[in-house]
Amino acid sequence: MQTTCSIKNKKMMMWAIIIALVLMFLLIIRIAVIQFVDGDKLKQMAYEQQTLIRKITSKRGTIYDASGEIVLAKSSTVETVTVNSTNIPEDKKDMVSKALSEILDVDYETTLKKVNKRSSIETIAKKVDKDKTDELRKWMQENNIESGINIDEDTKRYYPYSTLASQVIGFCGSDNQGLDGIEAKYDDILKGKSGQIEKLTDARGGDMDQLEETYVPAEKGKDLVLTIDLTIQSIAEKYLENACIDNECTDGGNVIIMNPNNGDVLAMATYPNYDLNNPYELENSENMDSSEKNKQLQALWRNRAIADTYEPGSTFKLITSSAALEEGITTTDKEGEFNCGGGIEVAGVRIKCWRYYRPHGTQSLRQALMNSCNPVFIALGQKIGKDKYYEYLEKFGFFKKTNIDLPGEAKGIFLAKDKVGPVELATISFGQRFEITPIQLVTAVSSIANGGEYIEPRVVKEIINSETGEKEEIEVKKGNRVISEETSKNVLSMMESVVEEGTGKNAQVQGYLVGGKTGTSEDGVNTNKYVTSFIGVAPISDPQVVILVTLYNPTGEGGHQGGGVAAPVGGQMLGEVLPYLELQEDKENEEEQKEEVEMPEIRNKTIEEAKKILKEYDLELEISNETDDISEKEAIIKEQIPKPGIKIKKEAKVFVDI
User: Fold this and answer.
1) In terms of C-beta density within 10 A (0-12 exposed, 13-18 middle, 19 or more buried), how is residue 501 classed?
2) In degrees, to the nearest 5, what angle opens at C-alpha 321 toward C-alphas 315 and 323?
3) Are 653 and 503 in contact (CB under 8 A)?
4) How far is CA 427 from CA 241, 312, 327, in A?
């Protein structure tokens, strides 16, 4: 019996030793894992648990206009107020909450919850102006509050010119991040590097008084110099706003002014614009739900000059002309080469000229462009052929984005080449049934203006290190040759004729020879909305400026024709931009400066009576609609463009409806 108990005891002891050894082995493995596998991770966790880190927002780089001196966006110093509740005595938490809510204009109940919350750090207010934080510092001193409330440096973005170039510059979010425009596109360059304040805390998260804070300063972001010229941008915005209001453009408008020789965008304006300092404010938004308000804000922030597509209409005839001349299919001034009979039949479909009721008759290419005669350009499109025509569309950049350094750019919308039949080619040749962006058209016409080379547009030309002053130039990016210099000169010559004698007469500028083309197109199918536009080049003798004015759905008394609505706006802008750039006036034009006259009232007059009146003013009458074979003695004028009282140059056309 005794022997049996002894054996059992020995077995139990042996198992106890084995279990102890196994446990010890597992413990050693666990210690090894903690030490060698999880060591760095646990060390980091301990550091984070014992360290209070307060972020210091870096100052964003300054954005300058083309001069490099005028500030368009800058960061000013403000402060952020946070609390560490463990360092605020319980009997003072209510007093602290009241003071913070009163001084910083924040909600008391929300503040009290944050002051009582057991966490290492809680933000009370961001972007606080220094006068308020100075008031808070004074209160803390008067009430012996030495810890628990932190006041740290922060930055606030400020835009000195409020609405100027708003859709181009963009704005920043509450965390100093770029959300739109240049601010978003160049965010990594502008934002700099954040700093921080580090301090070790005890187990409860309280301050350890014997240890000092570690301060890591923030690094300011780099500065940008734009191609946007403050004066030219202001001119563009002034006349664009006036045009949209005067012509009751329900969907707004945009303007691009570009140097065709280097791609510098001198101005890019969209109407309506918004206040960059208050980007979330909307007029008459009291009764809007959040979804509708967000939709309207997105539309307001949208840079339509690069993000929206539209049918260019007759402005696209410049592309067809360039392709036809480059291919040797036609010449500029062969008398009677084309004939307009009011329309042309294509694959069994008759496509009318805009002046089908009074055909243009025989014309040269120059005259056809001056008259904006659709049948002529349809015929040219047929001779070029869709394969070759699509090659030119690609050369001019319509199948790709321009790569302008702004976010949200779209590209042209065309039918696939294999789906293009005779009718589709016909409509494309005079600018309809496809869509492009305004920036694509400006870039393409710049290729014509600069002698035939494709150049990418840009809005930033220089990056400056704000600490060292070191400058980095943004290179001008040139593409392939699109057309020859000879073709370029010929098209520019015809564009000059359009403004001197054709549909673009209202874009003439005293002292300068301007070339251009007007356009009118439908804004969608069966919408009863129109887009009216004018593309201009000046001075023709040495092109330095390409301008595109695009107005969406003008519904005013002036109608929706490009020559009567958009061309005058282009002329007004160029009339101020060209002298500002100190460009030499064209001598030929100086000798032939046309006088201005005040437009007379011819409504409710017969065509015969109106012609006599206009002859006295050296003006030409153009009927915009069908006459129905009514004689000039019987046809009564219902509407006229321009309206009575408006200043108009002698020899200009007056458009009337009967």
Assistant:
1) middle
2) 120
3) yes
4) 32, 11, 20
Residue 464 pLDDT: 96
Residue indicated by tokens 């008459």: 284
The 8-class DSSP code of residue 70 comes to S
Instruction: Measure the CA–CA gap between 656 and 367, rounded to whole angstroms.
Output: 21
Give yes or no for a contact between 574 and 545, defined as CB atoms under 8 angstroms apart: yes
Q: Round to whole Å and give the CA distance between 433 and 416.
A: 13
Whole-prediction pTM value? 0.80
- Going by pLDDT thresholds of 50, 70 and 90, the confidence category of residue 45 is low
Q: Which residues participate in catalysis according to the annotation?
A: 314
Within 10 angstroms of residue 29's Cβ, the number of other Cβ atoms is 10
CB distance 638 to 657 below 8 Å:
yes
DSSP state of 107: -
Distance from C-alpha of 189 to C-alpha of 199, rounded to nearest angstrom: 30
CA distances from 405 to 196, 206, 252, 461, 474 (A): 32, 49, 23, 10, 11
pLDDT tens digits, residue range 450-508? 999 999 999 999 999 988 889 999 999 999 999 999 999 999 999 999 999 999 999 99
In angstroms, the CA 123 to CA 131 distance is: 19
Among 387, 369, 385, CA closest to 377? 369
Q: What share of the chain is helix, strand, coil (3-state, %, to 5)?
A: 40, 25, 40
- What gap in Å lies between CA 449 and CA 61, rounded to an integer? 35
- Whether the CB-CB separation of 454 and 445 falls below 8 Å is answered with no
233-275+290-593, what's its fold?
Beta-lactamase (3.40.710)
Task: Please state, in angstroms and as integers, the Cα–Cα distance from residue 413 to each residue in 422, 428, 432, 437, 619, following that order.
Answer: 18, 11, 11, 9, 40
Angle at CA 502, nearest 5°, toward 390 and 599? 140
CATH superfamily of this structure's domain 53-225 = Penicillin-binding protein 2a (Domain 2) (3.90.1310.10)
Is residue 195 within 8 Å of residue 58, measured between CB atoms? yes
Domains 53-225 and 233-275+290-593 belong to one CATH topology: no
Structure-derived torsion over alpha carbons of residues 490, 494, 495, 496, reported in degrees to the nearest 10: 100
C-beta neighbour count of 536 within 10 angstroms: 31
Name the residue ranges covered by the structural domains of the chain: 2-37, 53-225, 233-275+290-593, 594-658
pLDDT digits (tens, 9 = 90+) for 77-93: 788 888 888 788 888 88
- Is pLDDT larger for residue 168 or for residue 153? 168
pLDDT at 346 over 50: yes
- Domain 594-658 falls under CATH 3.30.10.20: yes
- DSSP SS3 for 526: coil
- pLDDT more than 70, % of the chain: 90
Q: What is the pLDDT of residues 568-621, one digit of tens each?
A: 999 999 999 999 999 988 755 444 556 788 889 998 888 889 999 988 888 888
Among residues 458, 520, 453, the alpha carbon closest in space to that of 482 is found at: 453
Q: Is the peptide bond before 539 cis (omega within 30 degrees of 0)?
A: yes
- Residue 385, Cβ neighbours under 10 Å: how many? 13
| Angle between helix 562-580 and 230-246 (nearest 10) | 160
Pairing of the two strands 223-226 and 63-64: parallel
